[in-house]
Write a structure and sequence with these properties.
With about 270 residues, the protein is an alpha/beta fold. The chain is built from eleven helices and 13 strands. The longest helix is centred in the N-terminal third of the chain and has 11 residues. The radius of gyration is 17 Å and the shape is globular. Its main location: cytoplasm.
Length: about 270
């Protein structure tokens, strides 16, 4: 049986000047602008027919603080679709507390890169289906990588970054995806620093390279400008899910419109 492709809205959450949780949207992980209240937006997407929902605390790792679990609890009370929460998760206890707050899955980036055994610990304790490894990838055109692809006539590799794309690691994304899968990750969440917020389409070479390497489900993220980009990442890169933010946040397209577009082109989706 063909598995349906998932459409997943995502909110990037930070603390505003008064210390309250707020959703922000930017380009290339910078120039963030206030977008809305996280709980209200989560409720809206739950009612709109989203397949899942992602909450990312975008500065928790960089600032060395814990995830906003009180906000997660409020969101979990409003959504009845799978909820993934990421940001600042570094230990098995962090995973436990995030799941206890109402998350169905946890998204881990920096914490897993710094200590890969966290993947195994989380999978063993709570099940692989709970452990999503997030990869913030950027292109590098040098000779330091392990795996190369052709992009616009040039050979490049993809580097894992941490702290919201602020720091490089010299770790090859494809090598890391293989290791994360071997250690028990249940899903890979592939973000493109280069495409983030541009609405120019997903990074197809990046997504395809990861999907061709692992059997673990892959969520494509960053760069979606409309349903046609979802179609491309599903058909050209074999992604299992498409994540988007701006096009949904600002009402350019609805979840339903996106699914109808895909359904008309024979991409299997869950329609209401």
């Amino acid at each position: 049986m063909t598995l349906t492709k998932r459409i997943i809205p995502c909110i990037d959450v930070d603390l505003d000047d008064e210390g309250n949780a707020a959703v922000y949207t930017g380009v290339n992980f910078e120039d963030l602008e206030y977008t809305g209240d996280p709980v209200e937006m989560a409720k809206k997407y739950n009612e709109a027919g989203a397949d899942e929902f992602v909450f990312l605390d975008i500065t928790a790792s960089a600032e060395g603080r814990e995830t906003m679990l009180h906000v997660v609890e409020s969101i979990a009370d409003e959504v009845f679709i799978p909820l993934t929460v990421g940001g600042g998760i570094r230990t098995r206890e962090d995973v436990k507390e995030t799941l206890r707050a109402g998350a169905d899955k946890v998204s881990i980036n920096t914490g897993a890169l710094e200590r890969p055994a966290l993947i195994e610990e989380g999978a063993a304790a709570f099940g692989s289906q709970c452990i999503v490894i997030s990869v913030d990838a950027r292109r590098r055109f040098d000779e330091q990588g392990d795996h190369y692809v052709e992009v616009d006539g040039e050979s490049c590799w993809f580097e894992c970054t941490v702290k919201g794309g602020r720091e490089g690691t010299d770790i090859d994304v494809i090598s890391w995806a293989e290791e994360a899968e071997d250690r028990g990750a249940g899903e890979l969440f592939v973000n493109s620093i280069d495409a983030d917020g541009t609405k120019d389409g997903y990074d197809i070479p990046l997504t395809r390279a990861v999907c061709d390497t692992v059997s673990t489900p892959v969520i494509a993220s960053s760069g979606c400008g409309g349903p046609e980009d979802m179609y491309e990442v599903f058909t050209e890169a074999s992604a299992d899910a498409g994540l988007a933010a701006s096009i949904f946040h600002f009402g350019e397209y609805s979840i339903q419109e996106t699914k109808e577009y895909l359904d008309e082109r024979d991409v299997p989706v869950r329609l209401r």
